[in-house]
Amino acid sequence: MKIAYLVNTYPRASHSFIRREIAALERAGHPVHRFAMRSDRAALVDPADLAEDGKTEHVLAAGAWQIALRAKLWMLRHPAKALAALRLAWRCGARGGGRLRHLIYLAEAAYVANRCQTLGIPHLHAHFGTNSATVAMLAQALGGPHYSFTVHGPEEFDSPEALCLRDKIHHAAFVVAISSYGRSQLCRWADHADWPKLRVVHCGIEPWHYGDPAPLPTGGPHLVAIGRLAGQKGFALLIEAMALAAPRHPGLHLTLVGDGELRDHIAASIAALGLGDRITLTGWLDEVGVRSALAAAQALILPSFAEGLPMVVMEAMAAGRPVIATAIAGVPELVVRETGWLVPAGDATALAEAIDALAAMPADRLTEMGLASRARVFARHDIDTEAARLATLFAEVP
User: How far apart are CA 142 and CA 160, in angstroms?
Assistant: First the structure.
């Protein structure tokens, strides 16, 4: 079955998991048409992302007049469905996001429905339960293709009513959560009759891209943290934990990979605590740079306050690295005693104590933990296996 993917902004450097999922579906013989509302090409560096951008149909690139014209013609041909979709958009707009914005989504949905009809696409799959899922839901209401969507979190779980999550689940053919925790949160907002629609399909990695793990560095402890420098990632708390642990470990060093709105604040905190020689801020790195940073570390440390199931944890485990992480969302489904340390979220002292435990661990035991991490993530997150599960769900749609 030919399907289409719909994402708000695609591709993006942080959405490589979507690119891998599409590639795995296509390897298995399922043609995928890519829709995105807009492009992020100016920010792309990775050649694979740039190539993916060239394969993607960016809806807003058609121009407002073309979108409006196609939407008008579609609605004139489907007046009853257009009225029902308008009511649905109006109701969702009243709950959050604004009615005018949802009228714009309605026009975009009519454009997408028209394109799917032209391309012979019977099913639309959106990533994220935000505006891309809104457009998919309205496209179906307008008489377009059936739809499904993948929920990642935490954004969807922060504003489920404003996002009309219950309506999106109800009208969807099925809904994917990337972890059992994510499915549990969807159960909170779905009608009980819709619970069978809620399925778990993990995001995946490509195991063949990971060679033998690099030997663990000596000394340290050497840590790496990777992510957007934003409030939910908890990096300000990690700086506090480093200040607590540093006096006990003269060789302690953290490489912090990423960029974002809190970079200046984090840099100021590092300076204020006298940790300039203990913490290196690298800024954004491409996939090669991230793998080099992981190879130079003994463990990944993830201090997040809110997550879905972070790709960076999967990548660190695939690289044969233990993980120190906060016990939130889907993280405990992947990080277990044999592969790392789980600590309470928001507790700098607990993070510092986990660093102590890492420092006290013999090198051979750390290596064993890294190999256990690698085996666990390969068993649970092989992208071809997960894409096959998703393809089965597509095939079950009437």
Answer: 23
Dihedral angle, C-alpha 334, 287, 383, 200, nearest 10 °: 50
**Strand residue runs (E) in the chain:** 3-9, 32-38, 56-58, 123-127, 146-151, 174-177, 198-200, 222-226, 253-257, 279-283, 299-302, 323-326, 340-343
Report if pTM > 0.90. Answer: yes
Q: Residue 393: phi, psi to the nearest 5? A: -65, -40
User: Cα–Cα distance between 173 and 158 in angstroms, integer?
Assistant: 23
* Residue 19 pLDDT grade (very low, low, confident, very high; cuts 50, 70, 90): very high
Closest-CA residue to 396 (of 151, 197, 203): 197
Question: Is 140 in contact with 174 (CB distance < 8 Å)?
Answer: no
Question: Is the per-residue pLDDT at 96 higher than 80?
Answer: no
Q: Output the DSSP codes for 48-62.
A: HHHHHHHHEEEGGGG
Q: Residue 203 in contact with residue 178, Cβ under 8 Å?
A: yes
Structural domains in the chain, sorted by start = 3-204+382-396 (3.40.50.2000), 210-380 (3.40.50.2000)
